[in-house]
Here is the input.
Amino acid sequence: MARAQLPTLSHQAVYDTLNRLTAVGLLRRIQPAGSAARYETRTGDNHHHAICRSCGDIVDVDCVLGEAPCLAPVGDHGFVIDTAEVVYWGTCARCAS
Ligand SMILES: [Zn+2]
Ligand SMILES: [Zn+2]
Here is the structure.
C-alpha cells in the first residue's frame, strides 16, 4: 500500500521504521508462533491476544486482572516480573460455526 505512494520504498526502510516506532512505544509487535510479525497501535495497556488456529484471525483480549503483570508465576526464580504476555489459542466464532 505504501509503494502506491512511494514506488521506491524498500522493504528494509519499512522494517526499519516499524522497528523504530516499536522501540519508542508507538507500535507493539506481536509474533504468534508460525506467523509473520504483526504490528498494532494499541500499546501500553498489557492486553493479550486470542488467535484462531483455523484461519489465523487475531483479536485483542483485555488484561485478565486489569494491569501488568496480570499473572504471577508459581515460582519466579528471583525475577522481578513486570509483564505477562498471554496468547489464547482456539477457534474463532466464524470457523466454529
Ligand atoms: Zn477462524
Ligand atoms: Zn492487540
Observations:
- The first helix runs from residue 2 to 5.
- The chain has a mean pLDDT of 91.
